[in-house]
Specification:
- It is a single chain.
- By secondary structure, the protein is an alpha/beta fold.
- The N terminus and C terminus are likely disordered.
- Helix content is 28%, strand content 22%.
- Bound molecules: adenosine-5'-triphosphate (ATP) and magnesium ion.
- The site of adenosine-5'-triphosphate has 15 residues, from helix 3 and strand 8.
Length: 570
């Protein structure tokens, strides 16, 4: 086997099942060898990481096979849709690293869909039903028991046509009548039992205003839009499997009515949804969290939205790597958020600049260091990438270290700051703690230590063994900052599953802890919103868009290591 063959073999093995279908279609010359996909969001909320999985599939497939992918807004429900969502969806797709060939809207096809519905009525394949939603539901039957025909099922086409026009002119109340496709009330597929295809909505539409009062249902818009646009592979999630026969049936009708004898037709394929532990993915619930101010908006860094993840410090690369890792299958699964956290750590480990920040500061005074003296120490920007260089950090007599890094009566294995013990101050000297001062209530005010001038990092004597290395900042030459420590939004793994509880009761009360007294090294003054950093020994952080020159704000993207399992088992 030649080298080329081996790599071809490997390539084959790594195809997901949809790529396998596409390659077969291409090999057989289906649809004239054309590949066209679409990403079809409903503009009724912000995109979340689940949508990212669909985006990577739709756009990724088109990219890989020299096809095109369009963005199509599925805007058939005017009551829930808004241009704010349209704009955010476009921004988030671009941020993820994809671009569409065209932007379409299902509302672009309202006339064509209307005409198709009229043709179906004329052909005796659709009728206006004047029963209530409840009555229609009652007649549906069960999967094992046939449904009952509506008393309006066999009304003359002329009557239905007239009423259909009235529905659209606003002369009929919402809910008073609907248009149903006449298919088969005894079908084993419930979607075939005369599905509703048009309903009255009197709310103005964000694009078509008050032109329409009768709106097509999803099942009467989606496949047809695919057909009008020339979509070849219509990819969606598994819950649409039972809709597929209806999708195909309407395409058949449409081709027949258009005397379309070509071999072109769009085909629907389904893959598993992305579900993530410790969060919810339902847009209805996410909207509730926003509306009830349980989070601070759609881009709250605790939200699983792309806007939230971006603000939290996630990179598009990390999200794409995560989606690549979980893959596409035909089985529903719950994906561990630890995998997503792994992906961002991996990406930021390679890219993020290391800086020093002290979240819960306590003063450390180096009593034998001259007052007023400053030494600029060299700090490595990223040990993983020498090309990122170094920066300077000011060392002075008065410093801050983390409260947690000091213990007065420490156990044997405590290798940080405790009286009588030596520790290294990162990029600086070895110091030995000599004591503390306390206030009246016994709280530690200041810690004292002496430094050894011979142990400056990089000097010959600097290799002396000490077990602990601490981060620090200069008291005078550091900046105050607010640090927002974000954690998982829910305290249970699968909030969607706890049906007997209101999901709002399952929120993690510690999902946001704000530290207002933090100190960060001066280097951070230069940073821009969304810049990523590693705060040494703590985690990955980024600058929040709320940050100003006067009031720096940083978000914790993810701690350095997964500390959650430890917290949980406490
Ligand atoms: P709703 O919750 O309102 O039903 P939705 O989450 O399905 O909406 P849409 O805007 O209809 O949102 O979704 C656009 C596309 O994204 C669809 O093709 C849908 O299958 C896909 N999608 C939505 N959620 C996920 C998910 N969790 N994992 C993978 N794909 C998803
Ligand atoms: Mg949907």
């Amino acid at each position: 086997m030649s080298v080329e063959n081996i790599s071809n073999e490997e390539n084959k093995k790594s195809l997901n099942f949809i790529e396998t279908i596409v390659e077969k279609d291409l090999a057989e010359g289906r649809n004239d060898g054309k590949i066209q996909t679409r990403f079809p969001p409903e503009p009724n909320g912000y995109l979340h990481i689940g949508h990212a999985k669909a985006i990577c599939m739709d756009f990724g497939l088109a990219q890989k096979y020299n096809g095109i992918c369009n963005l199509r807004f599925d805007d058939t429900n005017p009551t829930k849709e808004d241009v704010e969502y349209v704009d955010s969806i476009m921004e988030d797709i671009k941020w993820l690293g994809y671009d569409w060939a065209n932007v379409y809207y299902a509302s672009d096809y309202f006339q064509q869909l209307w005409d198709f519905a009229v043709q179906l009525i004329k052909a005796g394949k659709a009728y206006i039903d004047e029963q209530s939603a409840e009555e229609i539901a009652q007649q549906k039957g069960t999967p094992t028991q046939a449904g009952t025909d509506s008393p309006y099922r066999n009304r003359p086409a002329g009557e239905s046509l007239e009423l259909f026009e009235k529905m659209n002119r606003g002369e009929i109340e919402e809910g008073a009548m609907v248009l149903r496709a006449k298919i088969d009330m005894a079908s084993s597929n419930m979607h075939f039992r005369d599905p509703i295809i048009y309903r009255i909505v009197k709310h103005p539409h964000h694009r078509t205003g008050t032109t329409w009062k009768a709106y097509p249902m999803y099942d009467f818009a989606h496949g047809q839009s695919d057909y009008f646009e020339g979509v070849t592979h219509s990819l969606c999630t598994l819950e649409f499997v039972p809709h597929r026969p209806l999708y195909d049936l309407f395409i058949d009708e449409l081709k027949e009515l258009n005397s379309d004898n070509s071999d072109y037709r769009p085909r629907q394929y389904e893959f598993n949804r992305l579900n993530l532990t410790y969060t919810v993915m339902s847009k209805r619930k996410l909207l509730q969290l926003v509306n009830e101010k349980l989070v601070n908006g759609w881009d709250d860094p605790r939200m699983p939205t792309l806007a939230g993840l971006r603000r939290r410090g996630y990179t598009p690369q990390a999200i794409r790597n995560f989606i690549d890792k979980i893959g596409y299958t035909k089985f529903e699964a719950l994906n561990d958020v630890a995998l997503l956290e792994y992906a961002i750590r991996e990406d930021l480990n390679a890219k993020a600049k290391r800086v020093s920040a002290v979240i819960d500061p306590v003063k450390l005074i180096i009593t034998n260091y001259p007052e007023g003296q400053i030494e600029m120490m060299e700090a490595v920007n990223n040990p993983e990438d020498e090309s990122m260089g170094t920066h300077e950090i000011a060392f002075t007599r008065e410093l801050y270290i983390e409260k947690d890094d000091f213990m007065e009566d420490a156990p044997k294995k405590f290798f940080r700051m405790t009286p009588g013990q030596e520790v290294r101050l990162k990029s600086a000297y070895i110091v030995k703690c000599t004591g503390v001062s306390k206030d009246e209530s016994g709280n530690i005010k200041e810690i004292y230590a002496e430094y050894d001038p011979m142990t400056k990092s990089g000097m010959p004597d600097s290799n002396r063994k000490v077990k602990g290395t601490l981060h620090w900042v200069s008291a005078e030459h550091s900046l105050p900052a607010e640090v927002r420590l974000y954690d998982r939004l829910f305290k249970v793994e699968n909030p969607g599953e706890e049906k007997d509880k209101d999901f709002r009761e399952l929120l993690n009360p510690d999902s946001l802890i704000v530290k207002k007294q933090a100190r960060v090294e001066k280097e951070l003054e230069k940073s821009k919103p969304l810049d990523n950093f590693q705060f040494q020994r703590i985690g990955y952080f980024n600058m929040d868009p709320d940050s100003t020159h006067e009031h720096l704000v940083f978000n914790r993207t993810v701690p350095l290591k997964d500390s959650w399992s430890k917290i949980k088992s406490k």
